[in-house]
Amino acid sequence: MQYKWIEDLESNLDKFLDSLQKDEYKFNPVTKGITPNGAKLELGLSCYALKIYFITGRWDLLPNNRKERWIKYINSFQSIDNEFAINAFIDNAYINAYNEFSLTKNIKETVKSILIYLNYKNYRLRSEKLEEFITAESKQAISTLIQVNYKSTKLYQSELLNENAIRNYLNSLNWQNAWNAGAQFSSLCVFVSTQVEDESKKQLLKNILSDFIKNVSNPENGGFYTQTIPEERELINGAMKVITGLDWIGVEMPYPKKLIDTCLNAKPNMEGCDIVDVIYVLYMCNRMTDYRSKDIKEYFEILLSLIESHYFFGEGGFSYFLKKSQTHYYGVEISKGLNTPDLHGTLLLTWGISMISKVVDLPISNWNILKP
Asked: Which range, of 197-211, 242-256, 257-271, 316-330, averages the lowest pLDDT?
């Protein structure tokens, strides 16, 4: 196959990142079509950019004093006094944007509250979603720091990081919603692995996480859920989240061969997350077993064609959607969705290429594999 677009990516990716850069460690989500809130967000976008720097090796080329300033900047978002976990990472611009008044949102929230009260449907309120989003931002900041051999200034302290609480929380998750439950599981794995100092307690919590996930592992398709089988996209994306968590606690997935079959039988989706999720699952399974290795390689070549369709030749970036930039960051509108590359899509698809490059011979440098 011809990979001139990948050679173009290597030549122009730094130029694209520089076009988004506001200063040493602050970045815009897009160059065109940015919203007022998109221009204000800081923490998550800075982590996205740092991760790209790590994947491509650009991080290693930075002067040490600049690295230290960037790390100090990310750690500056830790907050003791907040309504979430102690020492959570809080981007106040994000909180303000998420909580902006909207009559439509308030009406929907009131209706949901009534339905929940009447036990009509298990909706998640915006306040509950916000708590999950802050957890996800904290997890991302912590994992980003560790990825480049640094750590948070203070330990993230959650009431979930004890034996009874973590058991109850895992059982309370809706494992029919495989992606959301998997995301919460993954965050717990990161926090247990990196924020619990007592080694005996850490091992106990790891064992609880490991034992629990075995009980929601399906031996027929390798997915992680309860009761009815999720639709294909949900199953694969949920598996991706769980496997990222298992990687942090050093536990292998139970049924990698079944997951390989599930992924290879799936019709590829076009969104950035969907593409990279199936790449990640197959990449991690392939590390465990050589089962259907040839088929995985052929499937990756198909996915490369999909990735290419998101690439902007000469600009050095990818769009999250096909011919449309990422529009939201955890419920906040950050762009108008123009036909332009964006930071999130570029992170995901460069990460995807880095994983594929370990299986398929590609004309790129020895890019690093991200640990999300």
From this structure: 257-271
Could you write out the DSSP letters of every residue in 83-126? SSSBTEE--HHHHHHHT---HHHHHHHHHHHHHHHTTS-----H
Q: What is the pLDDT of residues 263-294, one digit of tens each?
A: 999 988 888 899 999 999 999 999 999 999 99
Q: Is 361 helix (H, G, I), strand (E, B) or coil?
A: coil
Contact 211, 177 (CB under 8 A): no
Q: Which two tokens stand for residue 24?
A: 């040493």
**CA gap 259, 219 in Å, rounded:** 9
- Written as six digits, the tokens of 191 are 């926090």
Interatomic CA distance for residues 135 and 295, integer angstroms: 37
| Interval 108-151: pLDDT, tens | 444 444 444 445 445 556 778 999 999 999 999 999 999 999 99
Q: Are 195 and 141 in contact (CB under 8 A)?
A: no
In the chain, at which residue ranges do the beta strands (DSSP E only) sit? 78-79, 88-89, 311-312, 317-318, 328-329, 332-333
The CB density around residue 40, as the number of other CB atoms within 10 Å, is 16
What's at 1, amino acid-wise?
M
- Answer yes or no: CATH 1.50.10 is held by domain 4-356: yes
- 141-195: pLDDT as tens digits: 999 999 999 999 999 999 999 999 999 999 999 999 999 999 999 999 999 999 9
Q: Where are the domains of the chain?
A: 4-356
Q: 72-81 long-range contacts, Cβ below 8 Å, gap at least 24?
A: 73/24, 73/25, 73/46, 74/25, 74/43, 74/46, 74/47, 74/50, 74/141, 74/144, 74/145, 75/145, 75/152, 75/153, 77/42, 77/43, 77/141, 78/152, 78/153, 78/154, 80/154
With beta carbons less than 8 A apart as the criterion, state whether 229 and 223 touch: yes
Q: Kindly indicate the confidence band of residue 107, based on its pLDDT and cuts at 50, 70 and 90.
A: very low
Structure tokens of 83?
Answer: 């309504």
